[in-house]
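Thanks for the sequence, V.! I ran NADPH-dependent 2,4-dienoyl-CoA reductase/sulfur reductase-like enzyme right away. Repeating your input here for the record:
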Amino acid sequence: MSGTMSVAPEPAGIVIVGASLAGLRGAETLRQAGYDGPLTIVGDEPYLPYDRPPLSKHVLAGELAPDATQLPNLVPLDARWRLGRPAITLDPGARTLTLAGGAVLGFDRLLVATGARARPWPDPAGARLAGVHTLRGRDDAASLRADLARGPGHVVIVGAGLIGCEAASCCRDLGLPVTLLDPNPAPLARSLGAVVGGVLAACLRDAGVDFRPGTQVAALEGDEAVRRVRLADGAIVAADLVIVALGAMRATGWLAQSGLRADVGGVTCDGFCRVLAADGAPVPAVYAAGDVARWPIPLYGGRLVSVEHWGNAVEQGRHAARNMLAAPGDQRPYAHLPAFWSSQFGINVKAVGLTEGADSLAVVQGSLAARRFLAVYGRAGRSIAAVSFDEARWLPAYAERVAAGAPFPPIRQATDQPAIVRHPPGFPKARGSGAGTGTTGGRHG
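Predicted structure:
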């Protein structure tokens, strides 16, 4: 006998890639469900998981410090945190993960929860100019807040989606001059249509925002700092601060050589949150959740969608974790009704469902003119989504009808319901990419 004792290697356990809302709630669910093995959480940022919705509201306004956005742990995790070291490659067959710096982690099961990144200005020269910002993470918000606090003479925002509109609202609250440029006919036109978006356009203008719909931006120009925005028609808009709000790209670059179905639109999963290989087969032990996941949503005919909403990150993170611990024959399908909220220009906007493909719009409570209403979207005679502007009391009832696929419009002769007014939704023509997929933009409640 040699007198030495061999020590068995530590089990690889479960690894979560993404110190995100979805990753955190997934980790908590693993522990709540009784998993007591090794748990490692990898994050590309040096921060513990934090909440993103306040970044475009309270942090920009100076009401909340960026480091005050950390998410609470709901249960003890006993996790090994690998922060500030992003994952750079994945080998699903060998069940290994390589981090920046060369560390290699083994895993028994893996949850991909890497989220999304802000889409940068496409011209690197313009994107590098001082005073040009995107807004997605904590560092983005801190940098933008510092520049806003200096009192820029003119702010230009490119993109009138949720982030662009919320940033415009915040800038006006700070008393800053703002021009908002967007190629579509109205704010949020791609997600809510031009009719509902037109209400937001009126709010923008009443708040003093110079909103210019149907406007294409050609270049961001300056010396070392941004000085102007050149439009496609040759016009110039002066700017000493630019917020680029062009949506998000899923954080999937590290999966390029993994053999998984992953691209800038997301990592594709089956209905159980299991990641698919290039041949369409589920990859054993690899799951995905949150903004990065693209999955077939049963309520909308099984079409692939990715959803950048707070509620989906929470629910899908938890659901994927439960399935990770379940036997292969006990996988549960993920059923989710997308929902988001946004606060801007003194209006609380809430929505449920997906509007893509809607051919009808009915205002069923309140009125567009009063900027206080609830509207339902229909497709082929079925209710598929609903949105409220300061009229959320009835929204849960309509959410139930949307989830049930009720006829359009789903509720008639309700208490205090006015005459139902129908409109064409006014969606812009679809762009030529992403056929067969649906995406909802903006991390919101």
